[in-house]
Amino acid sequence: MKSVAMFGNRREDLGKVSTKSLRVEGKVPCVLYGGDDHVHFSMYEPDFKLLVYTPNTYKVKLDIDGKIYSAMLKDIQFHPVNESILHADFQEIQDGKTVEIGIPVKVVGNSVGVRAGGKLLVKAKKLRVKALPSDLPDFIEINIENLEIGKSIKVGELAGIPGLTLLDSPNNPVVSVKTTRAVQEAAKADEKDAKKKK
After folding, report:
1. Element of type H or E holding 127
2. Architecture of domain 100-185
3. Which CATH class is domain 3-94?
4. Looking at the predicted structure, is the pLDDT value of residue 89 above 70?
5. Rounded to whole angstroms, how far apart are CA atoms 154 and 175?
6. CA distance 20 to 26
7. Fewer Cβ close by (within 10 Å): the C or N end of the chain?
8. Half-sphere exposure of 47 toward its Cβ, with a 13 Å CA cutoff?
9. How far apart are CA 41 and CA 64, in angstroms?
10. What is the pTM of this model?
11. pLDDT tens digit sequence for 94-109
12. DSSP run (H or E) holding 185
């Protein structure tokens, strides 16, 4: 899995006044947990661009006042009106210790159902997995070549990816091909033709 580098500064004062003044400066209050201690720090909001506004998932090389941590973004809170980032939680990741994270789904192939006029629906853009940091892939590839109209590929059918435990319900559809009005009308027309020929 790819990494991004981010830089932060430790926070000594954790009160409401300090938090408010941070946000006025364009900074986001953050916390890093999962290690020996919780580390409270702040980062400039524009620095989140690569991490948040992307379909990809990244490990984070977090530099807090010169001390480097390997981490991942676990939770982020947005302002309900202006959608600015209010707070971010990071989890420290360590070799040999499993983590839970959402991995993007990458659809490959040209479905027979889509070629027949159906519409492809990607129901899950990310799948939650549990794995060692070294086993985390950039994406989970799903081949839809044989996917027919009215059929789905479910989470349970993707089991067996080396090093990954899928955490979503096995019955959850990931991708499906839906019938369209054009396909339904063509089927009705075929039915009428068949009856006329009789």
Report:
1. strand 126-131
2. Beta Complex (2.170)
3. mainly beta
4. yes
5. 7
6. 10
7. C
8. 20
9. 7
10. 0.76
11. 888 898 999 999 999 9
12. helix 181-197
Q: How many residues does the chain have?
A: 198
Distances (CA, A) of 31 to 38, 61, 91, 162, 166: 7, 14, 8, 32, 27
Instruction: Look up tokens 């690569």; give the residue.
Output: 50
Query: What are the C-alpha distances in Å from 118 to residues 68, 145, 152, 180, 193?
Result: 49, 13, 12, 6, 22
pLDDT confidence band for 63 (50 / 70 / 90): very high
Tokens of 124: 């899950």
- Read off the tokens for 183: 């396909």
In whole angstroms, give the CA distance from residue 177 to residue 125: 15
pLDDT at 181 over 90: no
Pairing between β-strand 119-122 and β-strand 173-178 as defined by DSSP bridges: antiparallel
- Please report, as a single letter, which amino acid is at residue 164: L
Structure tokens at 62: 């977090």
pLDDT digits (tens, 9 = 90+) for 15-37: 777 788 888 888 999 999 987 78
Instruction: Decide: residue 87, CB within 10 A, 0-12 exposed, 13-18 middle, 19+ buried.
Output: middle
Separation CA 136–CA 159 (nearest Å): 15
